[in-house]
Amino acid sequence: MKTLLCGRFTLDLSRPLVMGILNVTPDSFSDGGRFNRLEDALRRAEAMLAEGADILDIGGESTRPGAPFVSPQEEMSRVLPALEKLRDLGAPLSLDTRRAEVMREALALDAVDLINDVSALEDEGALQVAAQSQAAICLMHKQGNPDTMQDKPAYGDVVAEVAEYLKRRAQLCLDAGIARERLLVDPGFGFGKTLEHNLALLKRLDEVERIAGAPLLVGLSRKSMLGAITGEAEPAERLGASVAAALEAAWRGAAVIRVHDVKATRQALQLWQALRES
Ligand SMILES: Nc1nc2ncc(COP(=O)(O)OP(=O)(O)O)nc2c(=O)[nH]1
């Protein structure tokens, strides 16, 4: 059985897991500002768990294209209280950060079971912090940084390049003594990719896992690639495409699917799983 060693938990990856997004930011691209009050965040967390979320992903810095700079102090002032508040809910908590010092401070709270790093532990000291923890680690690919990444994304073979990058980052983790069973990789949909790049990555998602050598986490929920295809400008109105994208990812082997809409995604995946098991 494929499992993920995830801090305080060991997760069964025999079915796709749903990661509920909890952005404690005032400006996240689709739900910014609603949950940056601690009580709201706790209510949202409890609601997502009740809807069937397997993991909660707490983020204090929006990484949408063009997102403004958030200082480490500001990011910590957002995520650390939330992590403390959610620590004893009995669910794995993922911290969405690319900063080593935020990881270090959060891990000290014994409330981080998964480090979700959109920059694949590239920050100075991040690999060491992760290696000294028991947390699972999601290594995500991005080209450039949020302020410029969508200007002119360019690749030869986007799938091969993304997969090879993730393989290199995973090997660094293994060399640092991190068990392979703690690793997830993520192609980073929308992070320095055109629509064509995103579609190629989704269509060939199984190649990414095979080359990188670790289970996949994917984030497609409400993203602008879905807006481009549907013509829907409002991210929160992209539920149908988001659920369809989750199913497409599940068919291609995604182990963890990062979403805003937990209940709808969970229901779709329950049907998908029932058909596979029948
Ligand atoms: N592993 C992973 N982490 C991510 N974190 C943030 C976003 C951006 O989505 P969201 O958090 O909804 O928006 P924002 O960054 O504005 O908070 N996407 C991913 C993703 O695709 N994969």
Automatic annotation (TrEMBL):
| Enzymatic reactions | (7,8-dihydropterin-6-yl)methyl diphosphate + 4-aminobenzoate = 7,8-dihydropteroate + diphosphate
Gene3D superfamilies tied to this protein: Dihydropteroate synthase-like
- Pathway assignment: Cofactor biosynthesis; tetrahydrofolate biosynthesis; 7,8-dihydrofolate from 2-amino-4-hydroxy-6-hydroxymethyl-7,8-dihydropteridine diphosphate and 4-aminobenzoate: step 1/2
Identify the PROSITE patterns for this entry: DHPS_1 (PS00792), DHPS_2 (PS00793), PTERIN_BINDING (PS50972)
Q: Sorted alphabetically, which CDD domains does this protein's record hold?
A: DHPS
In terms of Pfam families, this protein maps to: Pterin_bind
Keywords of the record: Folate biosynthesis, Magnesium, Metal-binding, Transferase
State the needed cofactors, names only.
Mg(2+)
In short, the EC number is 2.5.1.15
Q: What molecular function does GO assign, one term?
A: dihydropteroate synthase activity
Q: What class of enzyme is it?
A: transferase
Q: Where is the Pterin-binding domain?
A: 16-270
Write down the superkingdom of origin.
Answer: Bacteria
Q: Which InterPro entries match?
A: DHP_synth-like, DHP_synth_dom, Dihydropteroate_synth-like_sf, Pterin-binding_dom
What role does it play? Catalyzes the condensation of para-aminobenzoate (pABA) with 6-hydroxymethyl-7,8-dihydropterin diphosphate (DHPt-PP) to form 7,8-dihydropteroate (H2Pte), the immediate precursor of folate derivatives.
Q: Which PANTHER family match?
A: FOLATE SYNTHESIS PROTEINS, FOLIC ACID SYNTHESIS PROTEIN FOL1
Q: Which family does it belong to?
A: Belongs to the DHPS family.
- Name this protein carries in UniProt: Dihydropteroate synthase
Taxonomic source organism: Chromobacterium amazonense
